[in-house]
């Protein structure tokens, strides 16, 4: 506001000088007109010009900076150049610009002051609350946890930062701010003293126990030479364990070869009991309709898959859903728009067997949650080929059937009590069905199992992390004991951890 006042005073000064010049102009001798020219327009002459009268009209005399003449109507036409300095318009413009800049700076600093005032009012209330809390803690006889002290310390540190910022930005009297800083420092010391004077010494005892536990672990590790993080895995392809106990973090192998837009599909590693070490990987993303399986690729090694090289790409016109699986150099898929199962030879890409799955619901009747067109889901484990589906007779509950991988005939069937559309996906391990469900956008849970050997079923709570929101398919490989997961277009794998038998 003071800058605006200075600007106005300077402007009035220049305007005053200009008005005086105009008054001088008006007080100068003017043209005198003859009686016959009394109606003519009077034109003011500049300072330094003079006129004289003669018979017959006005005679103009030429002086410096002055020229004049009469037109046909008897009006004096003159051109004037002021001999003194002209009005400094450029300087006034510069002054206006400087005033504008100063005004903007002032408004900016003034807005800072407003913000600081608001912050001070907020921290004033916080300081009052802290004062009350510290007084209560000082007088109370109960013990407080470390978290209580840490919260108070954090609030005190925030106020201390504000005080330091205020001291940097305000120049002048800072007695109140200095006193406030001293009070906050005193409060910090008081909180630290209260923490050291914990009535029951709970915090110090906890720290001592933690230090003793650490030393004990170090001692045990030094004696044994190593610390076992998890039980050793069973032999590849073996079921000498007590079932799935845990699962590792996901390993991102690759984005599917069609790109990020192809979010639905399946992938895995072909399992052959006669040649378990075989490394034939298959990737089968669905088309953009998230339903039809038309193209799939085969890679002879994981390295080739990682760099999209040395692959065989095949096309079929009858695949549906992401429930495909590879077993013994054959790909098993659901026939498009029907309940048939198809066996495709991976060497010739020829459908060698086609057979309907008895009583199976299809065409999105009982698919998994968040995944369409996967009513018929194939799975492979140490015991062979399985199919997971639902029927109208089971009222949508999961049905498990053991298949003959050569003829696709159903060998045996089990009906569970788990509703299939409430499950996000499922897989088989050693004749046991494991079902997953979605907890959050980044977490699944293996929450249900069904043992086909004993017909027992129950609940689990094995957390399973994921990279994207939806899991489209899960395939298990018995030899490397991994899960191959198609997760919104990304190819993931997980290591399974099994419970050791006594």
What profile does the largest beta sheet have? 7 strands, antiparallel
Q: Please tally the helical runs, counting DSSP H or I stretches of 4 or more residues.
A: 6
Task: Give start-end ranges of low-pLDDT stretches.
Answer: 1-15, 17-64
* Shape field: flat
- Quick one: how many beta strands? 24
Q: Percent helix among the residues? A: 25-40%
Strand arrangement within the widest β-sheet reads: 7-8-9-10-11-12-13
> What gap, in angstroms, lies between the N and C termini?
87 Å
Mean pLDDT: 78
Instruction: Give, in order, the helices and strands.
Output: HEEEEHHHHEEEEEHEEEEEEEEEEEEEEE
Radius of gyration: 46 Å
Assign the structural class, choosing from mainly alpha, mainly beta, alpha/beta, alpha+beta, or little secondary structure. alpha+beta
Portion in strands? 25-35%
Structure at a glance:
The chain is an alpha+beta fold and 502 residues long. The chain contains 6 helices and 24 strands.
């Amino acid at each position: 506001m003071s800058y605006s006042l200075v600007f106005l005073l300077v402007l009035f000064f220049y305007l005053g000088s200009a008005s005086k010049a105009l008054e001088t102009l008006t007080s100068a001798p003017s043209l005198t007109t003859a009686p016959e020219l009394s109606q003519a327009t009077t034109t003011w002459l500049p300072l330094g010009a003079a006129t004289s009268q003669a018979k017959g009209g006005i005679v103009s005399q030429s002086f410096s900076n002055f020229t004049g003449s009469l037109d046909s109507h008897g009006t004096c036409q003159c051109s004037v150049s002021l001999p003194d300095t002209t009005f400094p318009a450029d300087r006034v413009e510069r002054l206006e610009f400087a005033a504008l800049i100063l005004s903007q700076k002032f408004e900016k600093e003034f807005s800072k002051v407003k913000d600081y005032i608001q912050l001070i009012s907020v921290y004033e209330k916080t300081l009052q609350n802290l004062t009350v809390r510290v007084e209560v803690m000082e007088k109370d006889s109960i013990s407080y946890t470390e978290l209580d002290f840490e919260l108070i310390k954090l609030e005190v540190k925030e106020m201390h930062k504000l005080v330091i910022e205020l001291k940097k930005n305000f120049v002048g009297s800072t007695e109140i701010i200095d006193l406030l800083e001293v009070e906050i420092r005193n409060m910090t010391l008081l909180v630290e003293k209260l923490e050291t004077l914990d009535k029951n010494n709970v915090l110090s005892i906890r720290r001592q126990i933690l230090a003793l536990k650490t030393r004990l672990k170090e001692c045990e590790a030094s004696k044994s030479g190593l610390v076992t993080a998890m039980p050793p895995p069973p032999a590849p392809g073996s079921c000498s364990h007590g079932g799935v106990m845990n699962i590792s973090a996901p390993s991102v192998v690759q984005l599917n070869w069609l790109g990020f837009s192809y979010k639905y599909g399946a992938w895995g590693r072909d399992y052959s009991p006669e040649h378990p070490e075989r490394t034939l990987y298959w990737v089968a993303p669905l088309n953009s309709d998230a339903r039809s399986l038309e193209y799939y690729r085969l890679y002879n090694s994981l390295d080739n898959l990682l760099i999209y090289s040395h692959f065989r790409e095949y096309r079929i016109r009858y695949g549906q859903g992401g429930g495909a699986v590879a077993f013994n150099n054959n790909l098993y898929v659901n026939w498009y728009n029907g309940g048939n199962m198809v066996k495709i030879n991976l060497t010739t890409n020829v459908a060698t067997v086609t057979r309907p799955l008895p009583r199976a619901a299809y065409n999105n009747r009982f698919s998994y949650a968040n995944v369409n067109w996967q009513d018929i889901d194939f799975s492979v484990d140490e015991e062979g080929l399985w199919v997971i589906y639902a029927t109208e007779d089971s009222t949508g509950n999961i049905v498990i059937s053991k298949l003959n991988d050569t003829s696709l005939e159903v060998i045996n069937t089990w009906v569970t009590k788990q509703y299939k559309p409430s499950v996000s996906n499922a897989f088989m391990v050693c004749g046991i069905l494991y079902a997953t469900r979605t907890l959050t956008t980044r977490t699944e849970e293996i929450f249900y199992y069904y043992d086909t050997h004993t017909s027992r079923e129950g609940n689990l709570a094995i957390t399973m992390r994921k990279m994207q929101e939806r899991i489209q398919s899960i395939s298990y490989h018995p030899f490397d004991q991994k899960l191959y997961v198609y997760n919104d277009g990304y190819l993931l794998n997980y290591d399974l951890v099994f419970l050791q038998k006594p």
